[in-house]
Amino acid sequence: AKDIIRGDAVEYTHEIEKETHQRMLMLQGLRKAHAEHELFMVYQPQIDLNTGKINGLEALIRWKTHNGTMIPPDQFIPVAESSGLIVQLGEWIMCSALRDLEHLENRYALGLQMGINISPVQFRHPNFLNTIKTELNKFNLSRNQVEFEITESVAMMDIDTVRATLKQIHDLGAQVAIDDFGTGFSCLSYLETLHFDRLKIDKSFIDKMSNENAGTYIPEMIINLGRDLDMSVIAEGVETQEQVSRLKGLNCFEAQGYFFGKPMDMKSLEIWLDGHIA
Ligand code: C2E
Ligand code: CA
Ligand code: CA
Ligand code: CA
After folding, report:
1. How much distance in Å is there from the Cα of 57 to the middle of ligand 1?
2. Could you identify which of 50, 163, 179, 221 might form a hypothetical disulfide with 149, taking C-beta atoms 3.0 to 4.6 angstroms apart as the criterion?
């Protein structure tokens, strides 16, 4: 029995070493990718279900290596977070998204909102607010067009710090959304003490709205909660007309998902917008 246990331990150590090695390679690759312009932003439309018109975009990062391989953000964002590279990368993301929004405003003047994902590591960083200030000052945008998306894991930090940071973001004129809402297992009472402008209902709940009348219970609860707490609510990952109808029936009038548009690079987005506003 002793040998078996030792054998497992060796194998386990081996696994960890392999994983650490892979993360190290990923981090090296990511640093290089950043320097060599393999990273770019894509934007997914957010739709006002009352008018059917676009009213916002979510900025999402992409990594396409020189040989054409796409590496999904779910794989490299965690590596960027644990190494701290996300702070520098996050500045680049913010700057790119705001520059692209300014360009879209100059061309289309739609007053679109831009949602920018913020990692908890960025949010906690002492220089975070200065970075926001600097980036906002670079561009000619109305500040309430800018919305930072943070997850519930941020809300589980020290609540006074979170509250102070949110207030400072609001003082700058920007907005804050809570992302992947309902997946964080956190205590709901933080919603009463922290001020978010918008709740984003996680795709996993929207997926369950596809069959029969099942699966609307949690979305309905979230939509009502949002209304009671004076937040707007947007559904994520909407893929079918049926989901759209159900959401409207529950008084949710904002959505994003493949049903309306996939995340697009700037060139595709402009073609999409030309068709959309025509
Ligand atoms: P997220 O913020 O929850 O982003 C939504 C994800 O759902 C995106 O995946 C988007 O492409 C995908 N999606 C949108 N509509 C649909 C749909 O109808 N069906 C399906 N199947 N998927 C849909 P993506 O771009 O792969 O990003 C995954 C996660 O990586 C994001 O989740 C976010 O946590 C992180 N991420 C992406 N870009 C950034 C970034 O610029 N900064 C940071 N900090 N994190 C990012
Ligand atoms: Ca998001
Ligand atoms: Ca989300
Ligand atoms: Ca608002």
Report:
1. 12
2. 179
